[in-house]
């Protein structure tokens, strides 16, 4: 009989994740653990179920049907099973609601759930991230009418009343450079705002609401003249006729996520605040979705590593299991070190976000959150691609074969570095965050790392800070030099 290779098994993603367990043991009070553990355990069960289900089925992608048999425009989108299960799982486990509870660990408890749910959700977490971001932008706007209208849906714990929000920024003219937005906001004869234009990437087109950037008619050019609007997409069970789905994108990865090109043909809209400075108003959304991106990137790394480690104990080469081959063991250990660094950075941002939102942060922590958010996003995006690629190699040729499920990990990981701001855009945002200069920040970070329990661990951090400071000083006040150095500077800071 021919020799058969054993497939990797996905061990329980919660009970076996010593990195997550160690963080929760350290931070979450013991009286909060039983309820949290029950949720995380159930999400870990779902992750195992979803992995096994995907191994048994033919991959599916969303399908857009534009017209019905009688010539009516319907723009109906069929979704995958995980997407149908999304509203129930999200509301049952409070994946959005948990993050907005009034206590200091709300964000950590939420993102532990996100981390476990992400891959099983088939990127349903993408619209969840945008909905969470919309909550942040609406709260920051202080627009009580819109808050009262939308937040009970976004934070609902009942699938029947739960709504998703999109984030409509990218247009053909620019996704990084949203100051080139061409969508126009025009008032109708009754004074209501309506949006006209084309949004080029809409990843939550099946959602019930969205925040959209548009240029009020007659406003000037560029970023400051943009306004931020809240829209709703549904009229009862039907999509509003002023929202036309042109096409679903055929993507490298995230293939279960329906990302659409859409036309807005007079879609009713409500401004969040003043009819200008829309990018400033959407920034709270960007910072929240970038945090989700970092946590989800780390979740992809955790999955790739878990499968590679499991396989290393099953696969034999040269007379012993791979895990007993010193070089393979070293490869896995290096991957784990990269993963743990990325996990630490992403979850540091999560905890800072929680402290800032609950009004418990010291002033340097607010500055750190502003800087660490783009750094965590750009760093974890890059490391996720590298680590998933390395993990595929740990399976040899099997890692390259589609129905092992492994290639999808790499394809999906590539998106983390692109959406929500590319690596370069995030590096430039880090410069924005550094703002007044490197000195004040260096003091803040140094104070923060000096609280480390292991003093020797701080030595390389100070050395990396010194290197980054030298880079910053070398570029002086020359903007072109600063921008050219921004990626190196950001990667150095993020690593440190
Ligand atoms: C499953 C994983 C979860 C993730 C799901 C994600 C789903 C994917 C959905 C998307 O991809 S949605 C589209 C995301 N698009 C972007 O992220 C846009 C990328 N481009 C940028 O971020 C540019 O840097 C930006 C558009 C913000 C720059 O435009 P400008 O024209 O150079 O703006 P400017 O003048 O620098 O900034 C305008 C204001 O916003 C300034 O404030 P002031 O007016 O008070 O000076 C900035 O300081 C402020 N600002 C910009 N970024 C900020 C910010 N404030 C706080 N935080 C930020 N991050
Ligand atoms: P460009 O801005 O054209 O970038 C091209 C290259 O130029 C990049 O390497 C970039 O880093 C570099 N670059 C640009 N500006 C600078 C600069 N100043 N300095 C140095 N380098 C620079 N958008 C939404 O609004 N809503 C969504 O729901 C959504 N969903 C998405 C789903 C998927 C799967 C993908 C892939 C994208 C989605 N996007 C969405 C769009 C995404 O946010 C943009 O593609 C992204 O922000 C990059 O914009 P762009 O495509 O215009 O690239």
TrEMBL record:
Which keywords annotate this record? FAD, Flavoprotein, Oxidoreductase
- Tell me where in this chain the Acyl-CoA oxidase/dehydrogenase middle domain is found: 167-265
The family database entries (SUPFAM superfamilies) matched by this protein are listed as:
Acyl-CoA dehydrogenase C-terminal domain-like (SSF47203), Acyl-CoA dehydrogenase NM domain-like (SSF56645)
One Pfam family cited in the UniProt record for this chain = AidB_N
Q: Where is the Adaptive response protein AidB N-terminal domain?
A: 12-157
InterPro entries from the entry?
Acyl-CoA_dehydrogenase-like, Acyl-CoA_Oxase/DH_mid-dom, AcylCo_DH-like_C, AcylCo_DH/oxidase_C, AcylCoA_DH/oxidase_NM_dom_sf, AidB_N
What this protein needs as a cofactor is:
FAD
Q: Which residues form the Acyl-CoA dehydrogenase/oxidase C-terminal domain?
A: 277-433
Q: Which family does it belong to?
A: Belongs to the acyl-CoA dehydrogenase family.
Indicate what this protein is called per its UniProt record: Acyl-CoA dehydrogenase family protein
- Organism annotation: Frateuria flava
